[in-house]
Amino acid sequence: VATQNKDIQTVELLLRSGAHVNKKVDNGWTALMVASQNGDIEMVELLMQCCKHFEKYNIDTTVSLLEASKNGQVETVKSLLDSGIHVDERDLNGWTSLMKASRYNQKKTISQLMEHGANVTGTDIYGNTALMIAAEYGDAEAVQ
User: Fold this and answer.
1) Buried b / exposed e across 110-138, counting CB within 10 Å, b at 16+?
2) Model confidence, pTM
3) What SUPFAM superfamilies does its record include (predicted)?
């Protein structure tokens, strides 16, 4: 709840008191996922700092990157990628952050992902590339 409400002071207090940073709530999401979806860069950086020990490639960081990309949270995407999360992590359907950003017409996020070396030719489980997804949803600028 503190993460959803962007209450960084409460989150800091909870973390200092031993709260588990990777604890999931009823919907299966962690604080990092929520902060990433909301584009709360300060919260994302705090949570990433607290969980330096966890693997860079796990469902928590993958969902966080995909949600931030989908929602056009450019600074959050940059922070997650700068922390070492791989730009081409995939969800269960094989979608990458570039595919999510392309689907939701997030041009600035697409540029950020491209700067970090996103694979433009990768396909999802159905054979779709990010370019095909952008074209399907009618964003000529994103396709370019």
Assistant:
1) bebbeebebeeebebeeebbbbbbbeeee
2) 0.68
3) Ankyrin repeat
Q: At what angle do helices 107-115 and 59-70 cross, to 10 degrees?
A: 130
Number of domains in the chain: 1
| For range 115-144, the mean pLDDT | 86
Helix or strand or coil: residue 114? helix
Amino acid sitting at position 75: E
| CATH number for the domain that contains residue 98 | 1.25.40.20
Band of pLDDT at residue 57, cut at 50, 70 and 90: very low
Residue 19 has pLDDT above 80, yes or no: no
DSSP classification of residue 29: -
Nearest to 81 by CA among 101, 57, 106, 107: 57
Decide: 50 and 44 in contact? Cβ < 8 Å. Answer: no
**Arithmetic mean of pLDDT over the chain:** 82
* Token pair for 140: 């000529």
User: Cβ distance 40 to 76 under 8 Å?
Assistant: yes
The answer to whether residue 3 sits within a structural domain is no
